[in-house]
Amino acid sequence: MLNRGSEWRRWESHIHAPGTAMNDQFSGPNAWHDYLTALEKASPVIEAIAVTDYYVTDTYEEVLRQKAAGRLPAVQLIFPNVELRLDLATAKGGFVNLHLFVSPEDPHHVDELRRLLSCLQFKVMQDYFKCTRADLIRLGKKADPTITDDGAALSYGANQFKINFQQLRDVFTGSRWAKKNILIAVAGGATDGTPGVRETADQTIRRKIEGFAHVIFAGSPAQREFWLGQRDLGPEEIRVRYGGLKPCLHGSDAHKLDDVASPFGDRFSWIKGGLEFDSLR
């Protein structure tokens, strides 16, 4: 009997979907059909997908419904990737983004995730807003009273909402469920990642964020080599300073059809192991 052992499989770790809360450029009456078809025709074949959205799980749940209806036959693992924007600015005018990879193994993972996110608050306009769909809509309408549509308000509210890193870390470390079911990734780009944090006064918080993260979202060889301890710092120095070596993942970060399953530079993410969240762990 031949045992093949573990296989390398392509994962799409960062991809948005039609209806994503911000910067939704998927359009037309067939947006969902076209999106799913692009994923199904991707080469190399995609077998695991982290459906990404800002603060909410709406598009993840829709992908699950489409899968149940017969779409994405080659995809055996689908899980949420919740994108959060910190209140830490970058030199290029953006904000540092964190991602929550959530294990789908718990049948109640969506409810547990929403409960966890609801513990995060944003204070603005002499009011507190929770990280929930209802409060993001409320924030959008309060920030711009001309908005009446809930979908537009959700998008505008999500664009305003920022999360304090210390608050996030406290919520995460205080939750047994989160520590068991969530992996954290931080963007590695200069616009929306920690490399964009240039102010001397912010270097301590930058190091804390990178140490807190399990994964770096980056596709460049230089980033990969750094986080493996093959450049300026050796492996032991990386472990001491950042709590461990960090794997790098890269995705298409698609907000429009042309980018679906087409990451910059054709830098695909391959993970060796079964099609289960434990392989990512």
Essential attributes:
alpha/beta, eight-stranded mixed β-sheet, single chain, TIM Barrel
SSE sequence, one letter per element = EHEHEEHEEHHHHEHEHHEEH
Low-pLDDT parts are: none
| Secondary structure: helix percent | 25-40%
* Quantity of strands, as a count: 10
Tell me the number of structural domains.
Answer: 2
For the sheet with most strands, the description reads: 8 strands, mixed
- Walk across the major sheet and give the strand order: 9-8-7-4-3-2-1-10
CATH fourth-tier homologous superfamily of the largest domain: Metal-dependent hydrolases
- Look up the CATH topology of the largest domain: TIM Barrel
Rg calc: 19 Å
Q: Write the CATH architecture name of the largest domain.
A: Alpha-Beta Barrel
Form type: globular
Mean pLDDT: 95
Number of helices: 11
Percentage of residues in strands: 15-25%
CATH level 1 name of the largest domain: Alpha Beta
Which structural class do the helices and strands define?
Answer: alpha/beta
Q: Gap between N and C termini, in Å?
A: 29 Å
Task: Please give the structural blueprint.
Blueprint: E1 8-15, H1 31-40, E2 46-54, H2 58-68, E3 77-89, E4 95-102, H3 109-117, E5 121-124, E6 127-130, H4 133-143, H5 150-160, H6 165-173, H7 176-181, E7 182-187, H8 203-212, E8 215-217, H9 221-227, H10 235-242, E9 248-249, E10 269-272, H11 277-280
Parallel strand pairs: 1-2, 2-3, 7-8, 8-9
Antiparallel strand pairs: 1-10, 3-4, 4-7, 5-6
Please give a quick description of this structure.
The chain is of the alpha/beta class and 281 residues long. The protein contains eleven helices and ten strands. Helices cover 34% and strands 22% of the residues.
